[in-house]
Design brief:
The complex is a heterodimer of chains A (82) and B (592). Chain A is an all-alpha fold. In chain A, α1 crosses α4. Chain B has 592 residues and is α/β, with parallel strands linked by helices. Chain B folds into three domains: 199 residues, 3-Layer(aba) Sandwich (Rossmann fold); 119 residues, Luciferase, Domain 3 (Luciferase, domain 3), CATH 2.30.38; 120 residues, GMP Synthetase, Chain A, domain 3. Chain B is 34% helix and 22% strand. Chain B contains 20 helices and 26 strands. In chain B, the strands form eight sheets. Chain B has a four-stranded mixed β-sheet with strand order 2-1-10-9, with helices on both faces. A four-stranded parallel β-sheet of chain B has the order 4-3-5-6, with helices on both faces. In chain B, α11 runs parallel beside α13. The chains are: A mainly alpha (82), B alpha/beta (592). Chains A and B meet through α2 and α3 of A and α9 of B.
Chain lengths: 82, 592
């Protein structure tokens, strides 16, 4: 399992509670439009990520994130110090 | 944890305290720079990143002023700066003061996936204020580079690029004078078009003097702690300009850092013995909900003497819960200081009396709705009759006036509800390059119509709501928060999950619409909730009500987390039109 896959798996666990009745939770689901996260949920999720992976996610890196897979990309980047 | 040999600026200053008795912000900073206090920035774990004493702020600002002048800008030109909680903001904001330029604090991006929307918003603001310069912290510069209007700028770039501009030695600087514009403060307004509030030096200094000397009665041993964004009036005026003009030290945390870890705010209060901090009710609420047991054991909030509440309607139950929750950490509920203000009056209009906590005025709700009269009830009575209550926001600051007016503009006596109008030395000179809006809200007589409704008592101002949110049924005025409180009680649903509004024209058969977010999926339970709530509201208020259930997290909110009633109303109207198109029976469309 690559680091990216590991991270994605953890993210999907975090997002389990946002599984909607209509849409299935998948790695390319839109966090806001499909899973319905609001700003407070996003903050909570980022908090969990920062604490779990012991990283700091800068604001400018999340404005392009729309899906769990893209969020995993960002975390991998931060971890590898890019 | 990295141990660095840096310490925060001290609480006690080496020079005597002066409370904003200066003609301009530049003069105030000149004096603050004679002491040893200043701004302190903390990271997302609450560690001190950079202490920035006022002497250093001034040194950097003077260099920034010379660099700005080297760009050949005309006097009063606008300098847009992304207002992240960062030392670079201070350098640019105060640099403008020394160069006779006008800084315009711009919002920071907060939302996930919001890249394009954010760039579009920046672009609109830059165009609206006709900025000549746009500066960002290094990690945010790409948003500026992507704005279509970037080509119109004399300079754009990050703070590092800005610092490579030449500083010409011996250049004379002419700081912004008392009658010049000190800064532009953008507010979103109800229409969604940004408006640049124009605050002149004499206005901001008048407001700061009144706030510091009277509203907060600041003293030399005070220390401020803030997570409020620098692009909001409460963050900028209250916690950048206020501490600077009274030479107090401030400890900063970014707004996003607070939203993620509210504990850090209270930890900073504990560690540095903070005595003054403000937040909108949702900030207090976040702390109550997130901090528990061992977090509270580690806190000492006994030095907190001013726990200001502002920027949105004061919710008594939220404050009560906070006070109960943190009593064990030494929080004194008498520290609560309800306040009333808006960017158009620099910041503050009135404060409740210091050291007494929140005081509620209980009134007869029937008289309020039918006659617009706030008839007082004493406490035992309040439990029996149809009652509602409003928080006292105190008397206007010295030199400022409040008059409550009817729809014809005629002054109303005490305990009569009408439009809150204000006058005084802290008012804006207008909305930047928007004479029409300026004329609408700021008459020739110097009175500003705030758009709020309220009444006065011998104790002071009580704000009852926004004029545009009022629900009018057969000449009777109903306040949405009264219906929301009842609906929340009836269904055991949190206040943040529902909103009450006047029906859009698509739903003429009802008097009020209640929108409720719910996770309930069982059809029977959903139907029961709708029925019970509508019946309860009908019997309590005697009005026709429709209840509509929405999926979780769908009520539109403002950037500060408040539910936007006007946007929810538009959203609901669109939904009705869509449903009518599908099945042309209004009753079916209105039922949920």
């Amino acid at each position: 399992m690559t680091r990216h896959e590991q991270i994605l798996e953890r993210l999907m666990q975090h997002l389990e509670r946002f599984k909607s009745e209509s849409g299935e939770l998948h790695a390319d689901a839109d966090l806001i439009n499909e899973l319905g996260l609001d700003s407070v949920n996003v903050m909570d999720m980022l908090l969990e990520i920062e604490d779990e992976f012991d990283i700091s996610v800068p604001i400018n890196m999340i404005t392009d994130v729309r899906t769990p897979r893209q969020l995993a990309d960002v975390i991998v980047k931060i971890e590898s110090g890019e | 944890m990295t141990e660095l040999c840096i310490t925060a600026t001290p609480t006690f200053n080496s020079s005597p305290q002066r409370l904003a008795d200066f003609a301009t912000l530049a003069e105030a900073l000149d004096y603050a720079a004679e002491g040893c206090t200043g701004f302190n920035f903390h990271d997302n774990r609450g560690r001190l990143l950079a202490p920035l004493a006022y002497v250093e702020v001034r040194r950097r600002a003077l260099d920034a002023a010379r660099r700005l002048k080297s760009l050949g800008l005309e006097r009063g030109a606008r300098v847009a700066v992304i207002a992240d909680t960062d030392p670079a903001f201070m350098e640019i904001f105060f640099g403008c003061q020394y160069a006779g330029l006008v800084p315009v604090p711009m919002p920071i991006p907060m939302s996930i996936g919001g890249h394009e929307r954010y760039v579009a918003r920046l672009d609109r603001l830059v165009e609206s204020c006709e900025a000549r310069v746009a500066i960002a912290p290094t990690h945010m510069v790409r948003y500026i580079e992507e704005m279509p209007s970037v080509d119109t700028l004399a300079f754009h770039g990050d703070i590092e690029a800005f610092r490579t501009l030449p500083v010409e030695e011996g250049m004379t600087l002419a700081p912004s004078g008392p009658d010049e514009i000190a800064y532009l403060q953008y507010t979103s307004g109800s229409t969604g078009f940004p408006r640049g509030v124009e605050i002149r030096q004499h206005a901001i200094m008048a407001n700061l003097r009144a706030i510091l000397a009277s509203g907060l009665a600041v003293r030399p041993q005070d220390r401020c702690v803030s997570w409020l964004p620098f692009y909001h009036d409460m963050g900028l005026v209250g916690f950048v300009l206020g501490p600077m003009a009274s030479q107090l030290s401030v400890d900063y945390l970014g707004p996003r850092e607070f939203a993620m870890r509210p504990r850090l705010w209270l930890s900073l209060m504990t560690r540095n013995r903070g005595s003054i901090a403000f937040a909108p009710p949702f900030g207090y609420d976040l702390c109550t909900r997130r901090l528990h047991g061992s977090d509270i054991d580690r806190l000492d909030l006994s030095a907190w003497r001013v726990a200001g509440v502002g920027a949105e309607p004061v919710l008594p139950d939220v404050l009560e819960r906070f006070a109960d929750h943190f009593a064990a950490a030494g929080f004194d509920r008498r520290a609560f200081l309800p306040s009333y203000g808006m960017a158009e009056n620099s910041l503050a209009v009135s404060f409740a009396p210091l050291g007494t906590g929140m005081s509620l005025d209980h009134v007869n709700r029937d008289a309020l709705e039918q006659h617009g009269e706030a008839r007082a009830l004493d406490d035992p009575e309040a439990a029996e009759v149809n009652a509602t209550s409003f928080v006292n926001c105190g008397h206007p600051l010295p030199g400022h006036d409040i008059i409550i007016r009817d729809s014809e503009g005629q002054p109303l006596p005490e305990r009569h509800v009408g439009r809150v109008t204000i006058r005084g030395p802290s008012l804006m000179s207008g909305y930047f390059r928007d004479p029409e809006q300026t004329r609408k809200s700021l008459g020739d007589d110097g009175w500003f119509d705030t758009g709020d409704l309220g009444y006065l008592t011998s104790q002071g101002l009580h704000v009852t709501g926004r004029h545009k949110d009022l629900i009018i049924v057969n000449g009777r005025n109903i306040w949405p928060q009264d219906i929301e409180a009842l609906a929340s009680r009836l269904a055991g649903i949190n206040r943040g999950e529902l909103t009450a509004l006047a029906p859009p024209e698509e739903a003429p058969e009802v008097d009020v619409v209640v929108l409720v977010q719910t996770t309930l999926s069982d059809e029977q339970e959903r139907a029961a909730l709708v029925k019970e709530m509508a019946a309860g509201i009908r019997s309590e208020f005697g009005i026709r009500c429709t209840v509509s259930l929405l999926p979780p997290r769908t009520l539109p909110r403002t950037s500060s987390g408040k539910i936007s009633r006007s946007q929810a109303r538009r959203q609901y109207a669109a939904q009705l039109r869509e449903a009518m198109g599908a099945a042309p029976t209004p009753s079916a469309a209105a039922s949920s």
